């Protein structure tokens, strides 16, 4: 087992302790090394793609947060929702905006729960998209809110330079 896989295993256990109700989802993820992925990503088949260079410097607690983040893409069925709302052949720029919106919605929930994420993790504030005003706003409506706001400013939204870990289809 590689050092990156060992670190992922430790982080998965920490994620399970943080969110016991998501244990099955976290442990269903199958780590797959993929250097072409900038950070981490998931696909609809519950594969967790990772770049070992991304894993290496990350503290275990932050890696556990990223794993929870990736699991939430699948639990939220973001790939299915994208296809249902924007079609299976949505243009790449729309897929990128969707991924940013899902990241913002997930990260706002994780931060509210006290989950540690890397400092550079995508959130609405960094993209000049205000978060929903209601603290009782559910994840689903947060996602639609962020997508609506990003679409308003689609010409000026830049995909973060560090590379998004996208939901792969």
What does this structure look like?
The protein is of the alpha/beta class. The protein has 2 domains: 3-75, no CATH class; 78-159, no CATH class. It contains 7 helices and 4 strands, in the order ααβββαααααβ. The chain has a 4-stranded mixed beta sheet. Strand 2 and strand 3 (47-50) form a beta hairpin. It starts with a helix and ends with a strand.
Label this structure with key terms.
single chain, 169 residues, alpha/beta, 2 domains, 4-stranded mixed beta sheet, globular
List the helices and strands and how they pair.
Blueprint (H helix, E strand, L loop, with lengths): L2 H16 L4 H6 L1 E4 L6 E4 L3 E4 L1 H4 L4 H16 L2 H9 L5 H21 L26 H14 L14 E2 L1
Parallel strand pairs: 1-3, 2-4
Antiparallel strand pairs: 2-3
Helix content: 40-55%
Strand order of the largest sheet: 1-3-2-4
- Please state the CA-atom Rg, rounded to the nearest Å: 15 Å
Molecular shape: globular
Number of helices: 7
Q: pLDDT average, as an integer?
A: 79
What are the secondary-structure elements, in order, as H or E? HHEEEHHHHHE
Distance between the termini: 27 Å
Q: Classify the beta-strand content into a percent band.
A: 5-15%
Count of beta strands:
4
Task: Give a short account of the largest sheet.
Answer: 4 strands, mixed
Q: Would you identify the regions where 5 or more consecutive residues have pLDDT less than 50?
A: 123-140
Number of domains: 2
Class per helix and strand makeup: alpha/beta
